[in-house]
Write a structure and sequence with these properties.
seven-stranded mixed β-sheet; 4 domains; single chain; 41% helix; 743 residues; Rossmann fold; alpha/beta; globular
């Protein structure tokens, strides 16, 4: 939430709009006084990486009553406030909608009772409301993600990874209870991300014989090579008759059947800690959009329709306030009416598919093989390892096993294909793969090309393969292109690249979220190292080749002062201009500056050049440089990368079944899997729109986010006017310009 608060304060401050923060939610709105405080640019300093909320939150019984809302209206009108940005769940947003509806009557009563000045009443003749959903449950209809959900999911999956290792050591079953009173998102996604055997969620109650089925399943898990069991229960889980299913109840059931069981209730640990890179970026984007809505109302001098700003298909959209809340509340009615299928539909188009996926991912052995006993497909790793690849292979193996098929994996990527070095992977064998980074099967940078394609095809023919699935980045694209000239079976490219989004027709790639989290955590550590020292500027270099995705997104999430990327080259004048802006920022009381870039972003090819430019200003601050290197690539994959990889694997499997009904295959059957918006797209590799030489897509949606970095990080031009050294700068016109917009 702090990212959203920071964005609203700083965006509107840049527009010379006074911003007030209400502390302790509606409680502060009703009490007024010092709980409604005007905020400046500096008040949002250093809050981006902090958990919780700077301005506090509290439940307020008084606001549920009309008299309480009347007092809240008085407190706003006294300060000439006629616009509210509300961050919260359906309760907070419903309260805001009621408050807006009653506003004219409350205004009239206060004026009649002479509790407010007529001049203030005229300025506040209407109340504009903009909402942002802050909820770890991700329970609002019409939005893909709510603020806080990604961070909570990280807490759960981290705990699950720890419990899996201790459970395996003791041959024990663990039951993990997570939050989700009316929404099973956290439980479901954590089950997909981890080695889970069973998940209980409100939207998908188990069958009436679930107790017998569960006991049998957990005994099989305990007696298999897996040696442990994991069960995830949402706190609002219930059976088909609406009877609650609690962790202790399940523990008693399994214990009575001779199993060693422990219960872990994660509780409020899911709400705390530093927010993830995604939540910081999401909060910043939503906060800026909310500020834009407020500005539109101010400039129009008129009332605007109340709305919620939310994320839909990777785009920030505006939804009618009460329409979104109405759909969300209707899910509770579905529970009462036992219409669970409708409840899943209201959660989103992919929710029911993920419920089915969680069942498939829990299999421990191959079901009875198809009559012909043929191998279904081969998975080859092409290119460098990306966090989440192993989860994709695990999902493909388990989904195939669920349908009675087997999967063979080539070791060492293309080298393994050419050497015919392969292995059939069993579901139990890859049970813990989702927790591990890198590429367990091995990978290589070599590709299938005109000189070795015949050898590869010969090895494919030996095994009478049905299809080939490649996980990788640009090297996988190159290999796929070579195979288009010799199409004997369907070929799928699953995008997995920790560096950047490299291909068109793909909004998401396996490994990106982990890299962003690693960069942002590293920047947090770097900023902390400077907390007790004199003023410092850090020049931080990140990976990405010729693609600036990581630099832009990490710059926005970490509160960097500037981000330099290959897509928008900078010259010496612009670098000098940014250096002066940081100097001005230091003189206003800030103690550190962050510059994020890539080695191909500058006129020279070395970060040392930017470092040397700032060293010239050494008298104003100290300068340090840091090259993050390969820490951006390794270690435990993020929950998002795991679930994305599993989703990709599931979509590929479904398409394989459809495509194998064809009698002949053409180059159009060599495809890359992509998610554009809410749709899954299988695009023929020959139709990809790419800059082959620079190995980047022609379309980069995230470039629109770059101007926000300086808008949110650097002080408004009015605050710099007294000390600005940029009066003669053609890029600044005497005060801070956001050159990213014009360039």
């Amino acid at each position: 939430m702090n990212a959203a608060v920071r964005a609203v304060i700083r965006y509107l401050t840049h527009q010379n709009i006074p911003v007030f923060c209400v502390f302790d939610g509606y409680e502060g709105l009703c009490k007024g006084g010092d709980l409604i405080k005007q905020m400046g640019w500096k008040d949002a300093l250093g809050i981006l990486s902090k958990g919780g909320t700077l301005i506090g939150t509290a439940r307020c019984p008084a606001f549920r009553n009309r008299e309480g809302r009347k007092m809240a209206a008085k407190n706003l009108i006294e300060r000439k406030i006629n616009s509210l940005v509300v961050i919260g769940g359906d309760g907070s947003l419903t309260g805001a909608s009621i408050f807006k509806t009653e506003w004219p009557d409350l205004l009239g009563e206060l004026l009649k009772e002479k509790q407010i000045f007529p001049g203030n009443a005229k300025l506040c003749s209407y109340l504009n409301i903009v909402g942002m959903v802050g909820s770890i449950d991700n329970d609002l209809c019409g939005t893909d993600m709510t603020i806080g959900a990604d961070t909570a999911l990280h807490r759960i999956v981290d705990a699950m990874d720890c419990l899996a290792s201790t459970a395996a050591s003791h041959n024990r079953t663990f039951i993990i209870e997570v939050m989700g009173r009316h929404c099973g998102y956290l439980a479901l996604m954590s089950a997909i991300a981890g080695p889970c055997d069973w998940v209980f969620i409100p939207e998908a109650p188990p069958e009436s014989n679930w107790k017998e089925v569960l006991v049998t399943k957990m005994k099989n898990a305990s007696n298999s090579s897996k040696r442990f069991g994991l069960i995830v229960i949402a706190e609002g889980a219930a059976d088909c008759d609406g009877n609650p299913i609690k962790a202790e109840q399940v523990k008693t059931l399994l214990s009575d059947n001779g199993m060693d069981v422990r219960v872990t209730v994660l509780g409020h640990v899911q709400r705390g800690g530093q927010p993830t890179a995604f939540d910081r970026t999401l909060g910043s984007r939503l906060g800026c959009e909310a500020a834009k809505v407020i500005l539109e109302g101010i400039h129009a001098g008129a009332e605007i329709d109340p709305c919620i700003v939310s994320l839909k298909n990777n785009t920030i959209v505006r939804l009618p306030l009460m329409e979104a809340i109405k759909h969300t509340l209707s899910i509770k009615e579905c529970f009462k009416n036992k219409d669970f299928q409708r409840a899943q539909e209201l959660r989103g188009t992919g929710f029911s598919k993920k419920v089915e996926m969680s069942k498939m991912l829990s299999v421990l052995e191959v079901k009875s093989l198809p009559e012909d006993g043929k191998q279904l497909n081969i998975v080859a790793f092409i290119g460098g390892p990306a966090p989440g690849m192993n989860s994709g292979i695990r999902a493909l193996v388990k989904i195939a096993a669920y349908h009675g098929n087997i999967v063979t994996v080539y070791h060492e990527g293309t080298d393994g294909i050419l050497a015919d070095n392969s292995e059939v992977i069993s579901p139990a064998q890859c049970e813990l793969w989702s927790m591990r980074g890198g590429c367990i099967a091995g990978s290589s940078r070599s590709t299938i090309n005109s000189s070795n394609v015949e050898v590869a095809l010969s090895n494919f023919a030996k095994r009478n393969l049905d299809c080939l699935v490649l996980f990788g980045g640009f090297e996988a694209v190159t290999s796929s292109l070579a195979l288009t000239k010799h199409t004997t079976m369907p070929v799928y490219l699953v995008p997995a690249n920790y560096l950047a989004k490299r291909t068109e027709a793909i909004d998401l790639s396996i490994g990106l979220r982990f890299s962003l989290n690693t960069i942002v955590r590293s920047v947090d550590c770097i900023k902390q190292s400077a907390a007790s020292t004199r003023k410092r500027v850090f020049i931080i270099e990140v990976m990405g080749g010729n693609c600036g995705y990581l630099a832009v997104l990490s710059g926005l999430a970490s509160g960097a002062d500037a981000a330099y990327i290959p897509e928008l080259p900078v010259n010496i004048d612009e670098l000098q201009c940014d250096a002066y802006k940081v100097m001005d920022k230091m003189e206003q009381g800030c103690h550190r500056g962050i510059i994020i870039g890539k080695e191909t972003s500058y006129l020279t090819t070395k970060t040392d050049f930017v470092y040397s430019l700032y060293v010239i200003k050494e008298g104003q601050f100290a300068v340090r440089s840091s090259v993050l290197g390969h820490i951006q690539q390794g270690f435990t994959p993020s929950p998002f990368d795991r679930t994305l990889a599993a989703t990709f694997a599931c979509k590929v499997y479904r398409d394989i079944i459809k495509r194998l009904t064809k009698a002949h295959f053409t180059s159009d059957d060599v495809v890359v899997l992509g998610i554009r918006g809410s749709s899954t797209v299988f695009t023929p590799v020959l139709e990809l729109q790419m800059d082959q030489q620079r190995r980047v897509p022609l379309d980069s949606w995230w470039l629109d986010l770059k101007p926000l970095i300086q808008t949110l990080a650097l002080q408004p031009s009015t605050a710099r006017a007294k000390t600005s050294r940029t009066a003669g700068c053609p890029h600044c016109n005497g005060g801070g310009c956001d050159k990213g917009t014009s360039h």
